[in-house]
Amino acid sequence: MIESPSAAALLPPDWRPPSWMNRAACKGRTDLFFAPRAERPPARVRREAAARRVCEGCPVMVDCRDYAHQHTEYGLWAGESEDDRSDQGVPVPAPTSRHRTRTPSAATA
Ligand code: SF4
């Protein structure tokens, strides 16, 4: 699941993938599961829909969902976006697109 050089650079040096990741249907598809910089909302909707199609029927969906919930992950895991996890009360690493609030100065500018 996490095989891109940029994603790997964010991991602790001693991190090792759990064994279930070897059976992930998304192996090699990191681009679909993590937003590129400055992704526009319509592109995000399309990318996440494509990612969810990969998740459908994935043999490790339960492991994947549990991992994402336990590790406060970015991106789409087990068909759940950061917004989906936040809606369930799961901590997310940063404000998500639906939950981001405007600062007073931005609202009046
Ligand atoms: S459920 Fe989806 S995100 Fe999780 S391992 Fe499977 S394909 Fe990847």
In short:
With 109 residues, the chain is mainly alpha-helical.
Describe the structure.
- The chain has 109 residues and is an all-alpha fold.
- The protein has one domain.
- The chain is built from six helices and no strands.
- The radius of gyration is 15 Å and the shape is globular.
- The C terminus is likely disordered.
- The chain binds iron/sulfur cluster.
- The site of iron/sulfur cluster has 13 residues, from helix 3 and helix 4.
What average pLDDT do the residues reach?
A: 85
Sequence of secondary-structure elements: HHHHHH
The secondary structure category is mainly alpha
- Count of alpha/pi helices: 6
- Tell me which ligands are bound: iron/sulfur cluster
How many structural domains in the coordinates?
A: 1
Number of strands: 0
Major sheet summary line: none
Cα distance spanning the termini: 41 Å
Radius of gyration: 15 Å
Spans of at least 5 consecutive residues whose pLDDT stays below 50 are 104-109
> Judging from the principal axes of the Cα atoms, what is the shape?
globular
Fraction in beta strands: under 5%
What oligomeric state best describes the polypeptide chains here? single chain
Give the secondary structure arrangement, pairings included.
Layout: H1 5-8, H2 30-33, H3 41-55, H4 61-71, H5 82-87, H6 104-108
This protein binds iron/sulfur cluster.
